[in-house]
Design a protein that fits this description.
five-stranded parallel β-sheet; Rossmann fold; six-stranded parallel β-sheet; 435 residues; alpha/beta
Length: 435
């Protein structure tokens, strides 16, 4: 039985369901203690700490001089990657850039009130640090993660973009990762990973200048490091295991639904993959398709564990109840595999990314369509959004008053200040007009 069956009828069923899912978010105190030690050591020892941790976990002969990847390695990577793959990276990057270019905000001024100008000044952060996982010892480079993190930063016009990624055993970085950076025109790449790389971005070391924001996915050590450094630097979000919820009606093909569920289940044993449908035949056929397809996957053990622990084939009485459940789940990825998905869209309140129709599988968004695949998880889509250009920008409020405006409103400002017991505030408002 690769995936358990559930029934959801009303909000009363949500309490036990939510309690089960909350177990995925149990913090690990031992990880927090380990990461705190890593942060302290990198803060005090800099490059030497980075080299020591890298020797221990990634590259036994790693030296501090290898932290900064030389520019020639990026140039050589462009020649090492087959031309057809390079063209594919370029096409994907163009799609992602086209989408994110629409997100850019601009400064503005409002002078509609006589004697007063207010506004907003929008500026990019000076430096951004992008954490790019290394894949399986560098054999599965996460090209898409680099594109999805770097392009929004570039569209925000961030001047300094630093990439950190763990090296392979020989101390080098996979040429596909370097080629993707080169395609984007990025030159600042560092061969360090895990929590010590995040610490380097947050504190700065001899080789790695400090950044203002750290973004990018990673394991629990990376995520915990970002959580601990939040406030010292900005972060994108606290990412949990991958999630997908699929709402399907009788027009959906079970073989496709099973493939979509497995596309997330293969990520991690903690991944969640749920199919929600009022059609019992669709649920049962998908159950059989999961059994068949599961045995064809290289990562079948991981996917099977995820499905059995955190997956679900969920019977609902109707699509309206299914949407009710989806809004409670607030999934990272939501597929609407329906005959008319657009009619349901206005009722969806909480989802990181929404995929509409039978021909829009989640991996299309992961790699190629354009919207960002760094998304809120663990129900945080109730209040959080996908990584965007806005993550790399900050806003300053502007206020410019004439003497007449300030004088006309001084008594009002002073009265409000004194109601709060702040006499100096009141006097600051009055002093320009009482002398």
């Amino acid at each position: 039985m690769p995936c358990p069956r559930y029934t959801f009828v009303s909000d009363q069923d949500w309490v036990s369901f939510a309690a089960h899912l909350e177990e995925r978010n149990t913090p690990q105190e031992s990880v927090q203690q380990s990461v705190r030690c890593i942060l302290d050591e990198v803060s005090s020892s800099g490059d030497q700490a980075l080299a020591s941790y890298t020797q221990q976990f990634d590259s036994p002969d790693f030296k501090p001089s290898q932290i900064k990847v030389p520019l020639r390695a990026l140039e050589e990577a462009l020649d090492a990657v087959p031309a057809q793959d390079l063209a594919l990276i370029e096409e994907s990057a163009a799609n992602i850039r086209r989408f994110h270019r629409q997100q850019k905000e601009h400064s503005w001024l409002d002078d509609s009130t006589p004697g007063l100008i207010t506004g907003q000044l929008v500026r990019p952060v000076s430096r951004a640090g992008l954490y790019i996982p290394g894949g399986r010892s560098g054999d599965t480079p996460l090209i898409s993660s680099l594109l999805m993190n770097a392009i929004p930063a570039q569209e925000a016009e961030v001047e300094g973009i630093a990439i950190v990624t763990p090296p392979r055993k020989d101390g080098t970085i996979n040429p596909y990762t370097l080629a993707a950076a080169a395609v984007l025109g990025l030159t600042e790449v560092y061969a360090v990973g895990s929590a010590w790389a995040v610490a380097a971005l947050g504190y700065g070391t001899e080789s790695i200048p400090r950044v203002e924001i750290v973004t990018g996915p990673g394991n629990i050590f990376v995520t915990t490091a970002k959580r601990m450094l939040a406030g010292r630097v900005g972060i994108d979000l606290i990412a949990g295991p991958s999630e997908i919820a699929v709402l399907a009606d009788g027009t959906a093909r079970s073989e496709w639904l099973a493939a979509d569920l497995l596309s997330q289940a293969e990520h991690d044993a903690q991944a969640s993959a749920m199919l929600i449908s009022p059609d019992s035949a669709v649920l049962e056929k998908t159950r059989e398709a999961l059994k068949k397809q599961l045995h064809q996957l290289p990562r079948q053990d991981v996917a099977a564990s995820a499905l059995s622990q955190w997956g679900g084939l969920i019977q609902v009485p109707d699509l309206r109840t299914g949407i009710q459940l989806i809004n409670a789940l607030a999934p990272e990825h939501l597929e609407l595999c329906l005959d008319d998905p657009w009619s349901c869209l206005s009722h969806i309140r909480n989802a990181g990314a929404i995929f509409l129709g039978h021909y829009t599988p989640e991996p299309l968004g992961d790699y190629f369509a354009g919207p960002n695949h760094v998304l809120p998880t663990m129900g945080s889509a109730r209040f959080a959004s996908a990584l965007s250009v806005q993550n790399f920008m900050k806003k300053s409020s502007l206020i410019a008053a004439t003497g007449e405006y300030s004088r006309r409103n001084a008594d009002k400002v002073a009265r409000l200040a004194r109601l709060e017991g702040l006499e100096a505030h009141a006097r600051s408002a009055e002093i320009r007009h009482n002398q």
